[in-house]
Amino acid sequence: MTEPSLTPSIVLEYLFCPRFIYYMVCLKIPQQESQRYKVKKGRRVHDQKSSQNTEYLRKKLGVIDKKINQRLISKKYLIHGEVDEILFLDNGNAAPLDYKFARYKKRIFQTYKYQAVMYAMMIEDNFDCTVNKAFIVYTRSKNKLIKIDITAGDKKEVKNILTEVINIINNNYYPKKTNYNKRCHDCCYKKICIK
User: What are 41-59's pLDDT values in tens digits?
Assistant: First the structure.
């Protein structure tokens, strides 16, 4: 059996509800998320940011070089994705930077953190450097820049999640639904989901 290669988006769907993996990947039922306004607008913001200030380095963060829209694959962790920016720092470390079409609400959502951790793991695997922090730019809060610390515990937690997602895919396993019932009301699979 060929091992799947997961994206941060798939992991975020799993975090919303593990059954998304079963419906999306095992049964191949699309969720039509690309039709939603915020998704479309977010993609436009990403496209804009990738073409603006391509030479700009955030020197206050110790950035000495960067790569924009970098595609990454990690065979070690069975993940792949594209990070908005990889910042190479003056201490020899690196950090992912991700633009979010969102407002900063004085806390970092778990999904944003796990996505950053996955980018960190891929950067470490591809560039043989340490990644212990990440950055998010909240475009709807005047491009507010927020730092996220990334620990060994965070990476271990993401590895456990990846193992669970791969288990669902490889075994065609129907997992328990989310514990947050409010998520079910706005779910695109609610008509076919078995309670």
Answer: 555 555 555 555 666 778 8
**Helices marked H in 4-151:** 8-16, 19-21, 37-51, 110-127
- One-letter identity of residue 110: Q
- The residue among 4, 21, 48, 11 whose CA lies nearest residue 189 is 21
**Alpha helices, DSSP H, located in the chain:** 8-16, 19-21, 37-51, 110-127, 152-171, 182-185
For residue 91, the tally of other CB atoms under 10 A from its CB is 10
Report pLDDT digits (tens) over 34-45. 554 554 555 555
Q: Does domain 8-185 have CATH number 3.90.550.10?
A: no
Residue type present at position 102: A
List the domain boundaries for the chain.
8-185
